[in-house]
Known about the structure:
The longest helix is centred in the N-terminal third of the chain and has 16 residues. 37% of the residues are buried. This protein has six helices and 28 strands. By secondary structure, the chain is an alpha/beta fold. The protein has a ten-stranded mixed β-sheet, with no helix packed on it. It has a six-stranded parallel β-sheet with strand order 6-9-12-15-18-21, with no helix packed on it. Strands 7-10-13-16-19-24 form a six-stranded parallel β-sheet, with no helix packed on it. The protein folds into two domains: 72 residues, Tetrahydrodipicolinate-N-succinyltransferase, N-terminal domain (Tetrahydrodipicolinate-N-succinyltransferase, Chain A, domain 1), CATH 1.10.166; 178 residues, Hexapeptide repeat proteins (UDP N-Acetylglucosamine Acyltransferase, domain 1), CATH 2.160.10. The structure holds coenzyme A (COA). Coenzyme A binds next to strand 25, strand 28 and helix 5.
Amino acid sequence: MIDLIALEKNIERFSSSQSLEDENKDEMLKIFSDFKTALNTGLIRAAKPIDDTWIVHHWVKKGILLGFRLGHIVDQSIDESFRFFDKSTYPLRKMGEGDGVRIVPGGSSIRDGSYLGKQITCMPPMYINVGAYVDDGTMIDSHALVGSCAQIGKRVHLSAGAQIGGVLEPIGAMPVIIEDDVLVGGNTGIYEGTIVRKAAIIGAGVILTGSTPVYDLVKETLYRRTYDQPLEIPSGAVVIPGSRPITSGMGQEWGLSVATPIIIKYRDDKTDTASALENLLRSV
Ligand SMILES: CC(C)(COP(=O)(O)OP(=O)(O)OC[C@H]1O[C@@H](n2cnc3c(N)ncnc32)[C@H](O)[C@@H]1OP(=O)(O)O)[C@@H](O)C(=O)NCCC(=O)NCCS
């Protein structure tokens, strides 16, 4: 049983230490090992919802960063020709048949310190980084990235080439959040603490960063990040790639446009059909 209060206190203590040389190395490694166990089992998370509000757990992000300071480069090669070198504190996560996760052979990696629920399918190659939380029934397709601290909900489909950016620093920054039943289409990019609310659809090719304005044609509203709030895509929104003309200067003179995601509609039966996943393919 891990004492989470003591764990948080110790992580805070070591994180604020200027030089880890003066600390007890064995004690630190034991605490960091408990910390990763708590991440792997979903006991702790980089961010957690309280009702509809996501709260960042700063100390968890500090603990992840501490792991990079604590570790040294070690040989993690599979054999003589398949060679890897990474921090000793971040090996691959140990997985077994009983985990309820299907890892289809071929070039995928799941880093230690990440949570995976049940009935998850991982198509190769995909990567799940430290601090990521992936909930039950989610499908992670080929070439998808679940970046550090990203929080992925239940029954999400991360399509081929979907990039969910990692957010470790600054410590207070919101990770990328993808809530339950979202479809993240192929070749998308979701970065910088964006929150995609339940059952939204991010159409193929959409890129969302903290600086991206998103035009909602249905509610006639413009969404963008503010000083203290991340960019948020409303529940059930269907976002597609769009463009808007530049209306001043040389951009206007040359007839240029910039890319702008557009909420074209809210989910309906047609969208459900277009985004339905084949259950047989997902069975674990
Ligand atoms: C968003 C998506 C699900 C379509 O949803 P839908 O509810 O069926 O959308 P509709 O067909 O009703 O389209 C509504 C309008 O948006 C337009 N539109 C829809 N998707 C679009 C897209 N990706 N790009 C540009 N326009 C698009 C349609 O042309 C339509 O406009 P119109 O009425 O002027 O013709 C689909 O475009 C998409 O991106 N799917 C993801 C595919 C994918 O990545 N699969 C994973 C493979 S691993």
